[in-house]
């Protein structure tokens, strides 16, 4: 019978993570999942206590393949498993329908990367995100295209997903607000590999800026085909294309400074070292570099747990109000505070380009 008292004092806390760990953007989904794994391992090593009990954190990882149907099935599975909270999903197209399931079950959900405005505007009390949304991201890129890149003939292509279409819409608004003009808009899909027809049409417009709303798996081949067709326009996009993997996917078709992209989030000054330390730990642990969102997943898990500790309970109904009032949490991606919609306050954006096949920071903008 020895040790049962100690066992009774242990509290198992189940945290769900959902991302596309199969399919075209599996490299991004795996990156997210590893961010969650690192957070969970470090929390367990620290020996966190919640309400006087030693907490043991368990990660329940699900794959949604970036597909809304699979996303809602994964969400239902986690809700049925009575998880204490969920970090995910990666895409807006899966996060938005899943949000209703978590809301119905009363389970807090923090997305590390869903940027579509609608995600936090459905009135659910359980929905949060730790990155700036597309209104901010697309709008900032649109203004940047006109004011900094000096784009005169701007065209837009999007992949028709909730994310791609949404960021494309906001980019166009940003261009117009800055006094610029979008002369054409074309559509593709998030599974497409051949863009010859679209690019040939656009080439006739002699664009100096092509904005793509979508992910790196599509942007890479598109850049390759632009080079083949002799299109030397600046290529702009949101966080979906702004990955470490883009040069590899473009197979040496990237000219230095050709791409301008923005990632939701951004750290300045002293916070930079915190983020670099995280990347070093991540690389040592998993023998791979951070793609893009792993640090945001890591912060999302830790913000959730900090609310549980403060509330003295891992029960969703008890720690949810504390989570909603999160103010000034110091994460590896910067300071996290939520507004009344569950959006991050004063979210930063980082503008990047690529030089010599590596991502290079241009500036942090708010």
Using only CA atoms, what is the Rg?
Answer: 21 Å
How many separate structural domains? Answer: 2
Number of helices: 12
Q: Say how many strands there are.
A: 15
Our estimate of the beta-strand percent is 15-25%
* CATH architecture descriptor text of the largest domain: 3-Layer(aba) Sandwich
CATH superfamily of the largest domain: Response regulator
| Principal-axis shape | elongated
What's the mean pLDDT score?
A: 94
For the largest sheet, list the strands in their spatial order: 8-7-9-10-11-14-15
Terminal CA distance? 58 Å
Helix content: 40-55%
Oligomer class: single chain
Main sheet specs: 7 strands, mixed
Which ranges are low-confidence, i.e. pLDDT below 50, for 5 or more consecutive residues?
1-6
Question: Can you offer a commentary on this structure?
Answer:
The protein is an alpha/beta fold and 366 residues long. It has two domains: 4-132 and 270-346, Rossmann fold; 134-264, Rossmann fold (3-Layer(aba) Sandwich), CATH 3.40.50.2300. The protein is built from twelve helices and 15 strands. The chain has helices at 4-8, 26-46, 68-80, 92-105, 134-147, 162-177, 196-203, 216-228, 246-249, 271-286, 294-311, 316-324, and strands at residues 10-19, 49-50, 53-63, 85-88, 109-111, 127-129, 154-158, 182-187, 209-213, 234-237, 259-264, 329-331, 334-336, 349-355, 358-365. A seven-stranded mixed sheet has the order 8-7-9-10-11-14-15, covered by helices on one side. Strands 2-3-1-4-5-6 form a six-stranded mixed sheet, with helices on both faces. Strands 12-13 form a two-stranded antiparallel sheet. The longest helix has 21 residues, at 26-46. It is elongated, with a radius of gyration of 21 Å. Residues 1-6 have low confidence and may be disordered. This is Branched-chain amino acid ABC transporter substrate-binding protein. It holds the Pfam family Peripla_BP_6. Residues 13-355 form the Leucine-binding protein domain. Keywords: Amino-acid transport, Signal, Transport. Belongs to the leucine-binding protein family.
């Amino acid at each position: 019978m020895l040790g049962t008292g100690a066992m009774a004092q242990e509290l198992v806390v189940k945290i769900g993570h959902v991302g596309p760990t199969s399919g075209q953007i599996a490299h991004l989904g795996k990156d997210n999942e590893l961010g969650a794994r690192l957070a969970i391992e470090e929390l367990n090593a620290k020996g966190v206590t919640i309400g006087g009990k030693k907490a043991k954190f368990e990660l329940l990882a699900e794959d949604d393949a970036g597909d809304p149907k699979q996303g809602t099935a994964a969400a239902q599975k986690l809700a049925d498993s009575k998880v204490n909270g969920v970090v995910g999903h990666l895409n807006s197209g899966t996060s938005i329908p899943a949000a209703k399931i978590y809301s119905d079950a009363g389970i807090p959900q923090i997305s590390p990367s869903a940027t579509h405005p609608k995600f936090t505007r459905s009135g659910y009390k359980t929905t949060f995100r730790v990155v700036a949304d597309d209104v901010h991201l697309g709008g900032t890129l649109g203004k940047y295209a006109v004011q900094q890149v000096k784009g005169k003939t701007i065209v837009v292509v999007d992949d028709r997903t909730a994310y791609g279409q949404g960021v494309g819409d906001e980019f166009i608004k940003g261009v117009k607000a800055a006094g610029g003009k979008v002369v054409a808009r074309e559509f593709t899909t998030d599974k497409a590999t051949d863009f010859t027809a679209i690019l040939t049409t656009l080439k006739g417009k002699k664009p100096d800026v092509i904005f793509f709303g979508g992910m790196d798996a599509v942007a890479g081949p598109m850049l390759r085909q632009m080079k083949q067709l002799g299109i030397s326009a600046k290529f702009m996009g949101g966080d979906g294309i702004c990955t470490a993997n883009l040069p590899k996917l473009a197979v040496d078709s990237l000219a230095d400074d050709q791409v301008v992209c923005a990632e939701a989030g951004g750290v300045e000054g002293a916070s930079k070292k915190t983020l670099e330390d995280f990347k070093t730990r991540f690389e040592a642990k998993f023998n791979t570099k951070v793609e893009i969102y792993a640090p945001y997943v890591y912060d999302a898990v830790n913000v959730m747990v900090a609310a549980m500790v403060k509330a003295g309970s891992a029960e969703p109904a008890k720690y949810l109000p504390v989570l909603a009032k999160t103010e000034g949490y110091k994460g590896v991606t910067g300071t996290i505070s939520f507004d009344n919609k569950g959006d991050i306050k004063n979210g930063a954006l980082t503008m990047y380009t690529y030089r010599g096949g590596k991502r290079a920071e241009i500036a942090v903008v708010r």
